[in-house]
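Pair request: fold both.
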Amino acid sequence: MILVRPRKIEWASYFILMPLIDAGTCFMLLGSHWYLSVRLWIFGFFYTMITGLLVWYIDVICTRYINSALFGFRETGKRLFILTVKQFFIVLLSVNLIMSGFKLMDLPGYDPSTENFWISLGLAYFVTFIAMIIWEANYIFTEWKRSLAEKEKYEHLSLQSEFDTLKSQVNPHFLFNCFNTLSSLISEDKQQAEKFLDELSKVYRYLLRNNEDGMTTLKSELQFILSYFELLKTRHCDAIQLELEIDKKYENYLLPSLSLQMLVENAVKHNALSKHNPLVIEIFSTAGNVINEANFGGSG
């Protein structure tokens, strides 16, 4: 059997509220002279504290079970109703144990009248009801923070999955086009083919490295874009142009790796390119830590 470990707020409610319940119960059952007698202090107040500790722990176990059975915000109304009923029986158990103990100890001044029983029960229920509301508020707040953190986690995983899927779609398409270009250059211009192959190796070293890291600096991404653009330039000649205007203070900023590459690739894929109507791709920074990518010329 796994013991339930009370939380700090549950311990605090016991040490703050239980003395109030015990003092009120002792006053009602033992009369106004109970606090003047050492014997009544020892056997009255401390007995009720120990009994209260036992019943409090049972209360903690019952509350945990109810919270786990009626989990979530949608069950709040039902959970509060059951907790309220539970609290009545917990208090009823506590007051009966205290009265039975007082009777067995034959404490002087003990008055087990029906009126004192109901007053003690009402006092104990009122005070413990406050504790129950505090516990429930803490439970709702904790669940709200947990659900918020879980939502952010799944949103991050969803975005990461979308990003990885997009990379897996772009990279094979890009590689296929590069091999077609390289095949043509080998027979037409071997020197240009060697240069193209060198730039292609730089590009794919970057692709392989950053597919694992996930994040990269803007400076590294821009260096990669220059190599990547050389490959595009070889394929499309004067039909494509690239202009970079990035403030150097942003070079160490982090961004998802290959994010600029996908923007450039999509700009090329979804626009018509020609020598007389070239596609101009501008990547520039503006105030407010924003990097922009704009397409001018061509038609899409």
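--- second member of the pair ---
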Amino acid sequence: PKWTFTAARIILKVGSSAHVYNTTFRLKGVPVFYLPYASPPVERLGRESGFLIPNFGTSNTKGTVIGDSFYWAINRSMDATLGGEYLSKRGWALQENYRYRPNEASFLNLSYFGVLDRGITTTSVNQAGQTVSQTAKQGGEDVKLNAATTFAHDVRGVASIDYLSSFIFRLAFTENFSQAVDSEVKSAAFLTKNLLGFSFNGFVARYQNFQSS
């Protein structure tokens, strides 16, 4: 197989719980990571609240990165992931996601990403020969909402909303290349009603370009 997941000890209760001790994940026989303990969900619904695998890393701009997330299976129709990271050079980063699916015709996805930035300190020499230090904070937040539902009298509503507090924040902290080079922020929402061959529609949109005059 391309990957294997082995453990020294496994306690499994079918349809209830699983406890795995001293487990190693291998890709093509090469150990990728080791966990002293893990508890994967095995109940019939396939979802269970609990902490996810912690993440560690290093970055030239962020320093040492340590983080973890908690997955909350609220009920059969909604769940949420609440997480945070500590960036040794910058501060704290928060990541939250909420999903709601009440029926086949409706859904709501809400995500939040924000950084409480301590700032970057740079030094320069002024005309008088004095060394001047300046601290530039690049923190901010990015909120995205996507939703669709059918209201009373078969009125359908759809929304795709994006809020970005600062383009500098996106440049400094996004891990998506397409976002880092995109200065546009677009939001749109509409309502529509079809009746006897006629379509009645209402539409509102908001457009921002942080690099436009």
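Observation on the second member. The longest helix spans residues 167-173.
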